What we know:
By secondary structure, the protein is an alpha/beta fold. It has helices at 48-56, 78-84, 101-108, 116-126, 128-132, 143-155, 173-188, 200-205, 224-228, 231-238, and strands at 9-16, 25-32, 37-41, 63-68, 71-72, 86-89, 161-165, 193-196, 209-214, 217-223. α3 runs parallel beside α6 (143-155) and α6 runs parallel beside α7 (173-188). The longest helix has 16 residues, at 173-188. Bound molecules: adenosine-5'-diphosphate and magnesium ion. InterPro entries: AAA+_ATPase, ABC_transporter-like_ATP-bd, BCAA_Transport_ATP-bd_LivF, P-loop_NTPase.
Amino acid sequence: MSAAQGELLTVDGVVAGYGAAEQILKGTSLKVAPGEIVSIIGPNGAGKSTLLKTIAGLVQARDGTIRLKGGDVTRENALGRAKAGIGFVPQERNVFGAMTVAENLEISGFQEPGKVGARAEELYARYPMLAEKRKALARTLSGGQRQILAMAMGLMNAPALLLLDEPTAGLSPKAADELFDAIVALNKGGLPILMVEQHALEALQISTRGYVLVSGRNSREGAGPALATDPEIRRLFLGG
Ligand SMILES: Nc1ncnc2c1ncn2[C@@H]1O[C@H](COP(=O)(O)OP(=O)(O)O)[C@@H](O)[C@H]1O
Ligand SMILES: [Mg+2]
């Protein structure tokens, strides 16, 4: 088996941005292999969210390639990427507050409408809190509950890879720990995960591998726990 066949996601030299000229990603590369949790860390404004959006097809790459399971998806739009198996949970506004938990799940299962009922039941079994709250409006959930709902929405299309943008942002330390536990449990069930995290050291500790992104360029990369104990990384992210 060639290396490429053993890779789930391959991002190679991606250039992307928002305005006509401005480049945010300046030739970024990364890989996710089956079974991995991979974390992207880096300073504010480094382009981490832009990278996830470019992988999800919400921002178009101007150069470079994005491959999923060996297939080139660089020119696919967001729907095409979702069909190819990329699930994306954005950092903000990731649930519909005026809709119930059940409705949020239903509208998220757009790929296979015939499977919506069964998928929602699976998710209620996995996350009993969602079952208890299925008739509650999403805006009444706590921050941690809302992130579980957002993640469950991302699972409604049974993705091959789940992208999470700062899943623990704004959560209490206890809620953040619980969410990290939920992420690890999902991954142990076989789902590869690529996440951006501000809680960099905690994220690296549960990650197979990590990448440090600085100013739209790859900086450091390595095994998650090794990066988490690396003095330079600790100085950057603990300010010590
Ligand atoms: N929708 C947008 N339009 C224009 N510029 C944007 C947009 N979103 C982000 N940016 C800019 O892109 C850069 C990287 O942002 P982002 O990817 O959100 O960084 P990070 O997630 O690492 O904090 C920042 O300079 C930000 O201001
Ligand atoms: Mg961001």
